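Try this one yourself first.
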């Protein structure tokens, strides 16, 4: 690793990120399209993923694809792009991020070694990063991307994946949080306002119900009403009854 690397080796925990041209380019890419707070969150997530890779038991003899894990975690929040014209109107932010990262790989000459399977794993790692009921049961690279990202929310309190106070502090000092808690709420509520239909069936909608469309309660009653009306018990379950009645 060169002395001018954007990914310093952390001496206390002894971890570093693969300083490959592709990973460097990925970092420059997210700097163009996301906020400095988001950039630091993505880098911290990559460090946490590498740190926690020591705790993952693997039955497979295949070596862990660390570059894939780090690339995925660094690119995982492209769906939080500050330029909203880059985002879809009908996809969850995780899918936006996965699609944007895949498009990037398909155009980048540095990704020549990325075959279809490797790109699909990357897409899964980003698209499923906020859905533990899927990600925890996928390939090690997908699992590690998920827990690395979640570790940046939980820190030493991460259930099931011990992180010491010293390890957490070292990563956060290298890449400060820069008001991450406040910006996260703004982003979640902003998604509820920008494309609410993509939030009704997942955790993002919980923020609209609790905090409204601006983080201060504005519009939360109307948002909650629409979300409830489009929930599974009000749409999917009645559809079963209507179908069975027609068949009968």
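Now uncover the answer:
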């Amino acid at each position: 690793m060169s002395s001018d690397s954007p990914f310093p080796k952390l001496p206390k925990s002894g971890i570093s990120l693969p300083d490959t041209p592709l990973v460097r380019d990925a970092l420059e890419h997210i700097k163009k399209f996301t906020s400095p707070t988001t950039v630091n969150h993505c880098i911290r997530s990559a460090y946490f993923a590498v740190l926690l890779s020591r705790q993952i038991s693997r039955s497979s003899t295949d070596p862990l694809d660390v570059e894939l894990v780090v690339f995925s975690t660094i690119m995982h929040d492209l769906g939080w792009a500050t330029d909203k014209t880059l985002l879809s109107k009908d996809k969850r932010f995780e899918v936006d991020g996965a699609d944007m990262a895949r498009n990037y790989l398909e155009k980048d000459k540095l990704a020549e070694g990325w075959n279809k399977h490797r790109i699909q794993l990357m897409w899964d790692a980003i698209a499923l990063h906020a859905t533990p009921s899927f990600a925890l049961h996928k390939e090690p690279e997908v699992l590690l991307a998920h827990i690395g990202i979640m570790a940046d929310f939980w820190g030493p309190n991460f259930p099931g994946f011990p992180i010491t106070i010293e390890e957490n502090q070292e990563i956060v000092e290298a890449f400060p949080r820069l008001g991450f808690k406040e910006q996260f709420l703004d982003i979640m509520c902003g998604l509820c306002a920008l494309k609410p239909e993509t939030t009704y069936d997942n955790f993002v909608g919980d923020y609209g119900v609790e905090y409204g469309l601006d983080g201060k309660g504005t519009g939360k009653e109307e948002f909650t009403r629409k979300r409830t009306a489009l929930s599974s018990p009000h749409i999917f379950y009645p559809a079963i009854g209507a179908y069975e009645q027609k068949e009968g």
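Discussion: The radius of gyration is 19 Å. The chain has two domains: 1-177, 179-248.
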